[in-house]
Amino acid sequence: MPKLLSRFRYHLAVFFAVIGPGFITAVVDNDSGGIYTYSAAGARFGYLPLWTLLPITLVLIITQEMCSRMGAVTGKGLSDLIREEFGLRITFLMMALLVLVNLTNVMAEFAGIASSLELFHVSRYISVPLAALAVWFLVVKGNYQSVEKIFLFACVFYVTYVISGFLVKPDWKEAAIYSVRPVLLLEPAYIYMLIGMVGTTIAPWMQFYLQAAVVEKGITAKEYAESRIEVIVGCFMTSVIAFFIIVACAGAIYSVMPRDIETAAEGALALRPFGEYAFLLFSAGLFNASIFAACILPLSTAYTVCEGLGFESGVNRNLREAPIFYFLYTLLIVVGAGVILFPRFPLVQMILLSQVLNGMLLPFVLIPMVLLINKKDLMQEWVNSRWFNLVSWITVIVIIGMTLAYVGFALRGVR
Q1: Helix, strand or coil, per DSSP, at residue 351
Q2: For domain 18-410, which architecture applies?
């Protein structure tokens, strides 16, 4: 018994030592685009889409686990491995596409910051520049440990969506039933929404950021068992947050009159009749999610490009040691925030565009990822098992199929 207790304490200590990369990456997945998608799903279709969260969670765990494992075993980032295995030309093309896609994502996050604070009558001309400065200062003036602690603290604020869900007093029986009962309506809008829920959950930047963060934190194969648990816990937390966002909007909007909403901020306003706290918490959650993602996305892009093209990178390096890394980080923030300040800038369209572009790039990230993790000379005994390989390829094929359908619906203007 004492030996068992000692082993448990050891694994618990290691778990808390490695916590960060997997949890942060999964939770920040609920960014402004994700919150809008889940809010729109609950407002228009009520509790019906809840069942999709189970397969979405499984898919998220599979993709995140593979990236985390590659980082721990190889000690290299995903873009670094792609360059070594597939050559500089393919890597450069992928990096160029990723910068373009992530720039639209950064714009979408600053759009989320603007719309969330406009609920409190704060002009975007004040909120966006201040947020951009805060985001830049956090990373440029910090180190990995301090930045990670702030990111983990930001994760706590996602509990606002859980509280909002309870304050609305939804139909919990309906929510429980449709969480396990698959419902597939043969309507383009419903199918488009389901695809959007999958598309907003698994974004290309996540795979690159998670693996880079695992490497920078110094997690190795020795600590991987605990790191794997952290990844799984983070993925479950993401789905719990998504569940309560859908439930809150189903209870506040769908139960009164099913309708489309144009922004996540509109979802927050709909909660006002259920009390000022419900409105404030949902709005605060949107602001927190947007500014959190506005930190992560430029950081992820800078990591990825510098790794892929062989430049020094990392928050633990200073400006002289990693000038390209900090230049890219700064450029994405300045451009992403600056564009939002243009008069009559289409905030909602930018969020939707970022999700479509994510979908278009995703297959080009997932396929090399699965090929890499099956290389025996690279992963040794940590390659995918036959069962995991089967599940991984099915996951990749399903995601690619849904992504193509999502892009097709978007180009046809189906909403």
Answers
A1: helix
A2: Up-down Bundle (1.20)
CA distances for 355 relative to 34, 84, 210, 351, angstroms? 9, 29, 19, 7
DSSP state letters, 121-189: T--HHHHHHHHHHHHHHHHHSS-HHHHHHHHHHHHHTTHHHHHHHHHT---HHHHHHHHHS------HH
Q: What is the pLDDT of residues 105-154, one digit of tens each?
A: 898 889 889 888 888 889 999 999 999 999 888 877 766 566 667 766 77
Residue indicated by tokens 């020094």: 312
Pull the structure tokens for residue 218: 């110094």
How buried is residue 130: exposed, middle or buried, by Cβ count under 10 Å (0-12/13-18/19+)? Answer: middle
The DSSP code sequence of 72-102 is HHH-S-HHHHHHHHH-HHHHHHHHHHHHHHH
Where exactly are the structural domains of the chain?
18-410
The Cα–Cα gap between 133 and 153 comes to: 19
Contact between 122 and 324 (Cβ < 8 Å): no
Of the candidates 286, 408, 240, 289, which has an alpha carbon nearest to the alpha carbon of residue 29?
289
Name the pTM for this structure. Answer: 0.85
Chain-centre distance for alpha carbon 69: 18
Task: Give the CA-trace dihedral at 334, 337, 342, 347, to 10 degrees.
Answer: 150
Cβ(248)–Cβ(170) below 8 Å: yes
